[in-house]
């Protein structure tokens, strides 16, 4: 008979009386040693019906329970496309409502609907062309995240008639330029320039764009009147929840887009400063030290530590004993012990010195002198007079410890 | 002497491995495999206390949920003993919470409350002591213990031979064994 754990099958056989006496005995022995098995057997005996179907059911339920975990992942994959669709919808809505997006943008938006895989292209924002190249240039048109394909459509439809809508997928940056005479769209095609002059514009536009994207925030420093950095200053953008702290070099970056925001710079010990963010240049904030200072706090040391209640040497017992040990030397080299008794009052004054057990007269007198002229004492906080007994051991020289 | 030792050396190493593997990977399938090894026992225990197949099946699943929560919180030396306590406690709580109130005689709970892992080392001179202790047992207990452990008979055969009911045989063996253990321990102290 196997010594292994009896399985459900064996239990079933046992209960049905299908096992021989020896096997039954084995199982019973195991049950005697194993209350778990014994109780389980009792349970089966009481129910007296075949449990195989229930076992199968339980196994199925357990496996279902365990494989449940995979379902949420599947759900996640179902959610992703929905999220992507939502993103596109939001982008579309934004395109519609964009204040400068007049007629051409509407066209872009309608075309966008035909492009389901829009989000795959790299995201490009419009870039500002250098002013010296394009006089009379207005603010850049912001076309949104889904711009590449929109731009491609533009290419196909209006800007360049020489293009046919081919399978070409290129990164394109659009730029709307308002010229005094009217309006015109400049389309720049990255990697596959239409002609030499447009390629030139493109490269500039792209580098400008990258620069803006990376530094997209407004950088600044906070310094004191002497030009030293003030780390930890708090910069709050007015009308928003944006708050940043200057780093250890007094530098900060503000994630704000518009130029019209006003910020407040605060730091303890300095006057708070409000300023307008103008342009994208570096913001240098100088804070003046606040005129008001904190009131001084004087910390004084109390002579007697509050936790000392017993009469004792002010040095502490350890140092006091070291003192006695150091000084308990007679010029004659006489050795021995003197036991003294004295009283210490609440002020720590010593009185009533008596010799309990002494040696020679000189030694006794020396011992008394050591205590009377020695380190000061703390008085007892409870009783008025505290009796102290002290044993002073005289030895030959100071080195003889 | 052998009959006071565990007849089976439970295979703890396998349990330990599975438990370790689960703790490292967090793979529920591993825990389920471990649980499945003892699921029929858990179910039996639930049947004993709850006395209802459907309730017991639900309890088995709930105990697994409890296992998932508790397995990382407790230091588990022997998974089987731990699972036994977990299952039993669950059923008792279930009974107490009034879902299925059923009076249980106290000694039925106490019957198996012996230690799960008795000290298996007995000295040689215990042999003589054991014989002495056995003589002190009440007669039905002595007969049943002898037939069960020495002659290695099963309950049914013992019952047929002695005329006791199977349940009587069982409790005679249990009580006899317990009395022997107490007697032996006393013996050792002197």
Structure description:
The complex is a heterodimer of chains A (401) and B (190). Chain A is of the alpha+beta class. Among the domains of chain A are: 101-214, no CATH class; 218-287, Immunoglobulin-like (Sandwich); 312-394, 2-Layer Sandwich (Fusion Protein Consisting Of Minor Coat Protein, Glycine Rich Linker, Tola, And A His Tag, Chain: A, Domain 2). Helix content of chain A is 35%, strand content 20%. Chain A is built from ten helices and 14 strands. In chain A, the strands form five sheets. A four-stranded antiparallel sheet of chain A has the order 5-4-7-8, with no helix packed on it. A three-stranded mixed sheet of chain A has the order 6-3-9, with no helix packed on it. Chain A has a three-stranded antiparallel sheet with strand order 12-11-14, covered by helices on one side. Chain A starts with 7 loop residues before the first helix and ends in a 7-residue tail after the last strand. Chain B is mainly alpha-helical and 190 residues long. Helix content of chain B is 70%, strand content 0%. Mean pLDDT of chain B is 77; it is low at 1-10 and 99-120. At the A-B interface, α2, α3 and α4 of A face α2, α3, α4, α8 and α9 of B.
Question: Which terms summarize this structure?
Answer:
heterodimer; A: 401 residues; alpha+beta; Immunoglobulin-like; Fusion Protein Consisting Of Minor Coat Protein, Glycine Rich Linker, Tola, And A His Tag, Chain: A, Domain 2; 4-stranded antiparallel β-sheet; 3-stranded mixed β-sheet; 10 helices; flat; B: 190 residues; mainly alpha; Rna Polymerase Sigma Factor, Chain: A; Arc Repressor Mutant, subunit A; extended; disordered N terminus
CATH superfamily of the largest domain in chain B: RNA polymerase sigma factor, region 2, helix turn helix motif
State the low-pLDDT regions of chain B, or none. Answer: 1-10, 99-120
* Class by SSE composition of chain A: alpha+beta
Low-pLDDT windows of residues of chain A: 101-215
What is the number of domains of chain B?
Answer: 2
Give the helix level of chain A as a range of percent.
Answer: 25-40%
Q: Would you list the SSEs of chain A in sequence order as H and E?
A: HHHHHHHEEHEEEEEEEEHEEHEE
- End-to-end distance of chain A: 81 Å
Rg of chain B is 20 Å
Mean pLDDT of chain A: 69
Q: Class by helix and strand content of chain B?
A: mainly alpha
């Amino acid at each position: 008979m196997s010594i292994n754990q009896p399985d459900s099958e064996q239990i079933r056989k046992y209960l049905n009386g299908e096992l021989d006496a020896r096997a039954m005995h084995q199982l019973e022995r195991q049950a005697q040693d194993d209350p778990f098995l014994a109780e389980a057997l009792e349970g089966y005996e009481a129910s007296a019906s075949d449990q195989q179907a229930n076992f199968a059911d339980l196994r199925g339920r357990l496996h279902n329970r365990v494989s449940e975990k995979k379902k949420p992942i599947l759900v996640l994959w179902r959610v992703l496309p929905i999220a992507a669709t939502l993103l596109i919808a939001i982008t579309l809505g934004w395109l519609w409502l964009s204040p400068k997006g007049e007629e051409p943008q509407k066209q872009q938006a309608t075309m966008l609907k035909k492009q389901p895989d829009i989000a795959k292209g790299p995201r490009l924002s419009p870039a500002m062309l250098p002013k010296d190249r394009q006089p009379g240039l207005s603010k850049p048109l912001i076309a949104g995240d889904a711009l590449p394909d929109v731009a491609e459509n533009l290419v196909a439809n209006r800007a360049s008639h020489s293009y046919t809508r081919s399978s070409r997928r290129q990164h394109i940056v659009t730029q709307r330029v308002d010229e005094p005479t009217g309006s015109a769209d400049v389309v720049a095609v990255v990697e596959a320039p239409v002609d030499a002059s447009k390629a030139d514009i493109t490269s500039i536009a792209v580098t400008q764009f990258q620069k803006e994207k990376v530094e997209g925030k407004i950088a600044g420093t906070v310094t004191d009147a002497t030009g030293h950095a003030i780390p930890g200053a708090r910069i709050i953008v007015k009308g928003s929840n944006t708050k940043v702290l200057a780093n250890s070099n007094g530098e900060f970056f503000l994630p704000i887009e518009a130029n019209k925001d006003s910020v407040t710079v605060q730091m303890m010990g300095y006057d708070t400063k409000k300023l307008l963010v103008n342009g994208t240049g570096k913001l240098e904030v100088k804070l003046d030290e606040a005129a008001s200072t904190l009131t001084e706090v004087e910390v004084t040391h109390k002579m007697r530590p509050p936790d000392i209640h017993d009469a004792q040497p002010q040095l502490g017992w350890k140092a006091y004993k070291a003192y006695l040990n150091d000084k308990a030397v007679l010029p004659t080299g006489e050795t021995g012990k003197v036991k003294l008794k004295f009283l210490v009052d609440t002020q720590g004054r010593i009185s009533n010195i008596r010799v309990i057990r002494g040696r020679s007269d000189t030694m006794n007198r020396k011992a008394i002198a050591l205590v009377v002229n020695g380190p000061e004492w703390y008085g007892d906080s409870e009783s008025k007079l505290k009796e102290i007994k002290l044993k002073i051991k005289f030895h030959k020289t100071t080195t003889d410890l | 002497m052998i009959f006071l030792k565990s007849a089976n050396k439970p295979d703890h190493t396998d349990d330990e491995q599975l438990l370790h593997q689960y703790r490292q990977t967090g793979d529920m399938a591993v825990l389920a495999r471990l649980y499945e090894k003892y699921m029929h026992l858990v179910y039996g225990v639930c049947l004993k206390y709850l006395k209802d197949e459907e309730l017991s099946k639900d309890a088995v699943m709930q105990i697994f949920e409890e296992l998932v929560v508790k397995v990382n919180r407790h230091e588990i030396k022997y998974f089987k003993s731990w699972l036994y306590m977990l299952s039993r406690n669950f059923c008792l709580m279930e009974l107490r919470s009034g879902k299925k109130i059923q009076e249980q005689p106290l000694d039925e709970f106490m019957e198996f409350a012996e230690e799960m892992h008795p000290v298996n080392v007995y000295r040689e001179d215990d042999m003589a002591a054991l014989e002495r202790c056995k003589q002190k047992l009440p007669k039905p207990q002595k007969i049943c213990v002898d037939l069960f452990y020495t002659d290695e008979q099963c309950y049914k055969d013992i019952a047929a031979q002695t005329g006791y009911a199977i349940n009587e045989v069982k409790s005679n063996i249990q009580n006899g064994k317990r009395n022997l253990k107490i007697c032996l321990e006393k013996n050792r102290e002197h």
